[in-house]
Structures are given as structure tokens and as C-alpha cells.
Design goal:
Length: about 300
């Protein structure tokens, strides 16, 4: 098999694994905050066991470490709102909201990257509005708060992806991931006592949740991170983004097959999803037309969004 063909299969495998994050988030019985805390902690600890990460930490200027630490706070808030959206609605709704990330990015990234704003990117944002309206109209009223929280999660994706893009050339991906996830874990540890809670702040997961969390931390985070690290050597930024934009599609299909969520959602929801995804796929086409062929950075902090943004 040719290296490029093998790389495409690897990146599809990564996106499929990332698609399971929403499913596992629904199956794990822990509330959103301890779920995210238990997801981030083992990954950060595993990365700290790697000598390469320590070398990167020592070599990195303190100002840059603080910058990545700040981004880590945004990452933790993104995951917190993502899983909160799933708990408040379902996996399909959560995945659909995250599909708004590239749309927010097209509006936010020019400001953060200090480049000229392209009106065509604004058109992408406008095109998504009917899709969002259809999605809202296609879910039960009790799930609509989940859509609002999920939209906040997508906005956070756009913010930290844009910031990571500005700093992409200044740190080793594994070291950056360790800083961001480690800082995110510490931030949630400090935040938890300030939020309403019943019982233990970070309860020990039972056997069911423990296995699910291990699958989430290592099967849906570290494993696809390693696969993508290899695959990106043989793929263009455009090709990678077109594949990774399939993540919400995989998540929704998995939610239908494994959770039967199609019985909870109306036809208008899926029509809205189609409109949103159409706009999402237009974004890399516009980037290619503008001649943007930069090799994407790889930061394993929030599934595929941080691979290609």
C-alpha cells in the first residue's frame, strides 16, 4: 500500500475514534466536570512519563509555557461545555454543535492571526444560520439548553485553535499537549469547589465508568494522536481537514446505531445538520482557493479540531 493511501486510512481511523468521544460521554454516568477531569488527568500523567516531554518543558521559555497554560484553560472549558451539552441533550446534538467550530473559526481566526478578513468566510457563518434554526426546531424543548451550551463549546474550540495556530512553531506537539491538558486538569481542580455539587467533587468512577474513561483517555485521545502524528507526514492540510470534518458525521451515525438517538430527534434536526456540514466543508475549499496550503499543526487537545485548525 502506498504511504499516502495508508495515511488516509489512518486519519479516517483517527476520526472514527474521535467520533466515539460523544458516544462515551453519553454512556459514562459521571457528571460533566468529573468526567472531563478523569479524562484529562491520565493523559497528562502519561505524557509526563515521556523524557521527550520533559526535555521540551525544560527548553521552552517560561513566557511560552504560560501562553500554552492559558490555552489549556480554554481547552478544559471546551471539554466541560461539550460533555455538559451531551448530558443536557444527547450525543448527536453535542456532535452537531461542535461542527459549528470551523464556522466560528472562520470569523475569529483572522482577528487572532492578524490577517485580512475575507468576506467569503462571513458568508459561511450566514449560511449556517438556517441550519441552526432547523436543528433547534428538530429537537425536544428540553434539549435546547444543550444546544446553547454546545455552541459555547464550539466557540471555545475556535478560540484555542486560533491561539494554537499562532504558536504552532514554538513547541513540540507532545510537550504542548502535556502543558495544556495538565493546566486544564489543575484549573478544573480549582474550579470544582466553586460550582454546585452533591457529594464528592471528583467521585471515584465505578467499574463501568472506569473502563469507559480508559477508552476515552487512551483509545480516543492518545491512540489517535499517535496515528495522526504518523499520517500527517503524508497528507496535505487540505486533505486532512476534509477528512477530519467528517467527525460529527461519524458521531451522529454511531449515535444512531449504538444509542438509537434517531427516535429522539426530528427530520428537521437532520436537515439542519446537513446544512451546517455543507458550510463546514465549504471552508477548506475556500482556503484552498486562497492558496492556503500550510501544513497543519498537531495538538491532541480536542479531537480533530486541533489537528487541522
Amino acid at each position: 500500500m502506498q504511504p499516502a493511501s495508508k495515511a488516509r486510512l489512518q486519519i479516517h481511523a483517527c476520526v472514527l475514534l474521535w467520533g466515539f468521544t460523544a458516544i462515551l460521554g453519553k454512556l459514562i454516568t459521571l457528571p460533566a466536570l468529573p468526567l472531563v477531569w478523569w479524562r484529562m488527568l491520565p493523559v497528562a500523567l502519561a505524557l509526563l512519563l515521556m523524557p521527550k516531554v520533559w526535555r521540551g518543558l525544560i527548553a521552552m521559555p517560561s513566557r511560552l509555557r504560560w501562553a500554552y497554560a492559558g490555552i489549556g484553560v480554554l481547552v478544559s472549558l471546551h471539554w466541560l461545555t461539550f460533555y455538559a451539552a451531551i448530558k443536557l441533550s444527547n450525543a448527536s446534538v453535542g456532535a452537531t454543535c461542535i461542527a459549528l467550530g470551523p464556522v466560528f473559526l472562520s470569523l475569529i481566526e483572522p482577528w487572532i492571526a492578524r490577517r485580512k478578513f475575507d468576506p467569503r468566510e462571513l458568508m459561511i457563518g450566514i449560511a449556517v444560520v438556517p441550519g441552526v434554526a432547523l436543528v433547534v426546531g428538530g429537537v425536544p424543548a428540553g434539549m435546547r439548553i444543550g444546544i446553547a451550551v454546545g455552541a459555547c463549546s464550539a466557540l471555545l474550540v475556535a478560540l484555542f485553535s486560533s491561539l494554537n495556530k499562532r504558536l504552532v512553531d514554538h513547541g513540540d506537539p507532545l510537550t504542548v499537549t502535556c502543558i495544556e491538558l495538565g493546566t486544564g486538569t489543575l484549573f478544573l481542580t480549582a474550579l470544582a469547589p466553586l460550582l454546585p455539587h452533591a457529594g464528592a467533587i471528583f467521585p471515584l468512577p465505578d467499574a463501568h465508568d472506569a473502563w469507559m474513561l480508559l477508552a476515552l483517555s487512551f483509545g480516543c485521545t492518545l491512540l489517535p494522536f499517535a496515528l495522526a502524528l504518523v499520517a500527517l507526514r503524508h497528507l496535505s492540510a487540505f486533505g486532512t481537514q476534509m477528512v477530519t470534518n467528517l467527525e460529527p458525521v461519524y458521531a451522529i451515525v454511531l449515535a444512531i446505531v449504538l444509542l438509537g438517538e434517531q427516535h429522539e430527534l426530528g427530520v428537521r434536526f437532520y436537515l439542519g445538520v446537513a446544512v451546517i456540514l455543507a458550510a463546514v466543508f465549504v471552508h477548506p475549499l475556500l482556503s484552498r482557493a486562497q492558496g492556503n496550503t500550510e501544513q497543519p499543526e498537531l495538538l491532541g487537545t480536542a479531537e480533530s479540531h486541533s489537528v487541522v485548525e
